[in-house]
Amino acid sequence: MSDTTLEHKPGYRTYLLVYAALVILTVVTVTSASMDIGRIAIVIVLAIAGTKSVLVLLYFMHLRYERRLLVKLLVPIVVVTLAIFIGLTYTDILFR
Predict the structure, then answer these.
(1) Please, are residues 48 and 25 in contact by the beta-carbon 8 Å criterion?
(2) How many CB atoms lie within 10 A of CB 26?
(3) Beta-carbon count within 10 A of 59 CB
(4) Contact partners, residue 16, CB within 8 Å, separation at least 6
(5) 20, CA 20 to 30 Å: which among 12, 35, 57, 88?
(6) Nearest residue to 26 (alpha-carbon basis) of 5, 10, 44, 48
(7) CA distance 41 to 24
(8) What is the pLDDT of residue 1?
């Protein structure tokens, strides 16, 4: 019995490109933090952080090459768990 599933494994070039993107986004984050652009700065920094986290999740944690069903099941569980933690944190702050 042979397993006929094809697994796509990224090469070194992919990892280097993702790493370069992460370094560039880090430089952009540091640069934008030193600029005085008002309240929009937090939106820019959070968007960059979100982009970096998606790159790490997809390529370094290999979620891009994972079965779609597994990802579709795990993402809602993680989001609900995060919402519970944030909600419990805010209720603790409210009642202090």
Answers:
(1) yes
(2) 13
(3) 19
(4) none
(5) 35
(6) 48
(7) 17
(8) 44
